[in-house]
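Please fill in the sequence for the structure shown.

STRUCTURE ENCODING:
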C-alpha cells in the first residue's frame, strides 16, 4: 500500500513539476515560466501529489471562472502510473468545485489518449465536440469534454462511489 499527500502547488514545486512535464512531453511541453504564471493567476489553482519522501509524482491545474472549472493540465510521473493518482487529483478538483459552488467542469484531451478519455468518462465527462489541430506539436485534434451539472444526483452519486473505491493509496490532503 502506498501513502501520498495532495498539496497546493507552490513556486518551490515548479522544478519537480517541470521535470515530469519534460518526461511526458519531451518535444513540446509547458515552460517553467508557464507554471509560474499559472501559480500567479488568481483564477488558477494547482495541486501536486507527493509520495512518502515528499517527491512530486503527479499534478493537476484548473481555472475557476464563475460556475465553471476548466482543467488545464493533469500529469502523472510515468513510474507511478496505475496508483490511481489521476483519480485522486480529479477528486481533489471536484471537491474544490463543490466548495466553490462550481457547476460544470471542462477540459480538452488528445483524441489518441484513450487512457485519459476512459478516466474522464468514468467521472461522467462527455465529449461534446472537437477542436481541430489543437495540439501544436503534431496538429492532433482535441476532444472537448464536459460534465453535466456536478450537483445533479447522477454525478454526485457516481463521484461518491469513485471516492470510496480509491483504496490502494492512503491519501491526506493539505488545504
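FILLED IN BY: designer on duty
SEQUENCE:
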Amino acid at each position: 500500500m502506498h501513502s501520498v499527500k495532495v498539496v497546493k502547488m507552490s513556486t518551490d514545486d515548479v522544478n519537480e513539476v517541470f521535470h515530469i512535464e519534460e518526461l511526458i512531453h519531451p518535444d513540446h511541453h509547458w515552460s517553467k515560466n508557464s507554471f509560474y504564471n499559472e501559480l500567479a493567476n488568481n483564477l488558477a489553482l494547482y495541486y501536486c501529489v507527493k509520495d512518502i519522501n515528499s517527491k512530486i509524482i503527479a499534478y493537476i491545474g484548473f481555472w475557476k471562472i464563475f460556475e465553471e472549472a476548466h482543467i488545464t493540465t493533469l500529469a502523472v510521473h510515468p513510474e507511478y502510473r496505475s496508483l490511481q493518482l489521476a483519480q485522486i487529483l480529479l477528486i481533489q478538483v471536484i471537491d474544490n468545485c463543490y466548495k466553490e459552488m462550481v457547476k460544470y467542469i471542462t477540459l480538452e484531451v488528445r483524441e489518441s489518449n484513450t487512457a485519459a478519455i476512459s478516466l474522464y468518462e468514468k467521472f461522467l465527462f462527455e465529449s461534446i465536440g472537437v477542436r481541430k489541430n489543437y495540439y501544436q506539436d503534431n496538429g492532433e485534434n482535441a476532444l472537448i469534454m464536459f460534465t453535466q451539472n456536478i450537483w445533479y444526483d447522477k454525478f454526485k452519486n457516481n463521484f461518491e462511489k469513485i471516492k470510496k473505491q480509491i483504496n490502494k493509496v492512503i491519501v491526506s490532503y493539505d488545504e
